[in-house]
Amino acid sequence: MGFPDKFRLDGKTAVVTGGAGLIGAALCRGLAESGAKVYIAEADMQRAHLLKKRLSACGHSIESIKMDIARVSSIISGIKKIKKTAQKIDIWINNAYPRTSDWGQPFEKVQPLSLKKNIDSHMNGYFHCCQKIFTVMKNQKSGVIVNIGSHYGVLGPNFSVYKDTAMTMPAAYALIKGGIVNFSRYLATYGAAHHIRVNAVCPGGVYNKQDKRFVARYKKLIPCGRMALPDDVVGPVVFLCSDAASYMTGQVVMVDGGLSAW
Question: Which residues of 23-43 are buried (b: 16+ CB within 10 A; e: fewer)?
């Protein structure tokens, strides 16, 4: 295999949870363009089917599968269905972003039940996905897991960017993403003996038509001078899934335009 070929994912099967979302859709496209067969694992099947149709029209190998990471039974059922048509599950991307309707409450107003629900669905959802797919990868003696974290799982937020907007950085988000980041390190050392690599990718703020005042302030914090776009996350994830990154595990890759370098 020539070295450039090591960046390809031909013959690999990849699963992306929350695969029809803002970042998830870009990841599905990037993995497929790199040669992988991609399963869009999604709670919202309408969005999943639309994405499948769009990517399939480009000639990519795409399937959609119902999966709600907040329900362990849904994770187990989804994996079983994938295994019926795929010889192996080589790549698993934990990207889903479940949250309650009161997400974004100020720290002082966060209710205990809301906090519990968000931890159970998001952080514990990632845990259960990793646990169930780990067993599959352990049996096949290989696999790659990438957990999508956040720069706010590593850094404290600058709350000045939210001034005079309806936005904030939820306390639960920092708690959840911080846990996911260090859990990725744990799983990397635990899985190494079974040839399972685990890394975390931590995007900075991703542009999604936010309040213009927030966007202007946030840009000033970034050495690269702009917010992230979904495609900015794709390259690092595809690289970590490839054989070119075969000696990388337990790493936290910051994709934040240089924010963490200040």
Answer: bbbbbbbbbbbbbbbbbbbbb
Which distant-in-sequence residues (6+ apart) come within 8 Å of 49 by Cβ?
64
**Contact at 8 Å (CB) between 258 and 222?**
yes
Give the Cα separation of 177 and 73 in Å (integer): 23
Query: Which tens digits make up the pLDDT trace of 165-189?
Result: 999 999 999 999 999 999 999 999 9
Class of the domain covering 3-261: alpha beta
The catalytically annotated residue of 97, 152, 173, 218 is 173
The answer on pLDDT for 124 being more than 80 is yes
Q: Measured on CA atoms in the order 20, 23, 26, 32, is the torsion positive or negative?
A: negative
Interval 204-260: pLDDT, tens:
999 999 999 999 999 999 999 999 999 999 999 999 999 999 999 999 999 999 999
Looking at residue 39, what is its pLDDT? 98
Q: Show me where the domains of the chain are located.
A: 3-261
23 Cβ neighbours under 8 A, 6+ residues apart: 95, 148, 203, 206, 230, 233
Residue at token pair 């709670």: 43
Element (H, E) at 214: helix 212-221
Residue 218 bears catalytic tag: no
| 172 exposure class (CB count in 10 Å sphere: 0-12, 13-18, 19+) | buried
Contact 177, 155 (CB under 8 A): no
Confidence of residue 145 (pLDDT cuts 50, 70, 90): very high
